[in-house]
Write a structure and sequence with these properties.
196 residues; alpha/beta; two-stranded antiparallel sheet; 5 helices; Rossmann fold
Length: 196
């Protein structure tokens, strides 16, 4: 099975255009084989976006594991924040950049980065629907290493399904951050981690 957090140049492309409706607005996205949730906005990302208060999003935002870009693009379209989007998957980043243009986004860019490898600034908000199937070790690196890329009062927001380790992630991240479970909906925990 091919995973969306790897690069497989032999994976046949089957690019298509999908529509995503969120809060009465419609967005268009190019998706393809080899990217996460290519047919629709996944439930975890939707619950995450529905939970976070767009009016409080300001400054610099980083979307980690952006895939073809729905989280970062929807935030860009509804705030004045400057949004960076990163992913390890080349195809995902190519799609994200196409989708930035497609949705007429001027305050976002997408670039390749294995976790925070190519990230060279600090953010007010880091947001992620992390790739659970990378395994706990890498997942926790994504969450813990965010701390080094947050501004003084920055926040990490992430979503994890309760059947995929949400409770243990909350407990384990409490040693790194001030943790708050903001929402529980459709088996998904929306977690805010404050950089103390």
């Amino acid at each position: 099975m091919e995973h969306y957090f790897t690069n497989n140049n032999d994976l046949k492309s089957n690019e298509k255009l999908i529509k995503i409706k969120f809060k009465e607005k419609e967005y268009s996205f190019y998706t393809d084989n080899g990217v996460f949730s290519k047919d629709a906005l996944d439930t975890g990302s939707r619950v995450l976006l529905e939970t976070i208060d767009f009016d409080k999003i300001k400054g610099d935002v980083l979307d980690v594991g952006c895939g073809y870009g729905p989280i970062g693009i929807i935030i860009s379209k509804n705030t004045k924040a400057c949004v960076d989007m990163v992913d390890v998957n080349n195809r995902a980043i190519n799609l994200a950049n196409k989708n930035i243009k497609l949705n007429n986004i001027e305050n976002a860019k997408a670039f390749i980065s294995d976790r925070y490898e190519n990230v060279d600034k600090l953010y007010d908000l880091i947001i992620t629907n992390p790739p659970i199937r990378v395994g706990k070790e890498i997942l926790y690196k994504i969450l813990k290493e965010a701390k080094d890329h947050l501004k003084e009062n920055g926040e990490l927001w992430f979503v994890i399904n309760k059947h995929q380790g949400a409770k243990s992630a909350v407990n384990d991240m409490a040693s790194v951050y001030n943790i708050d479970v903001v929402n529980k909906n459709k088996n998904f925990f929306i977690i805010r981690a404050k950089n103390d």
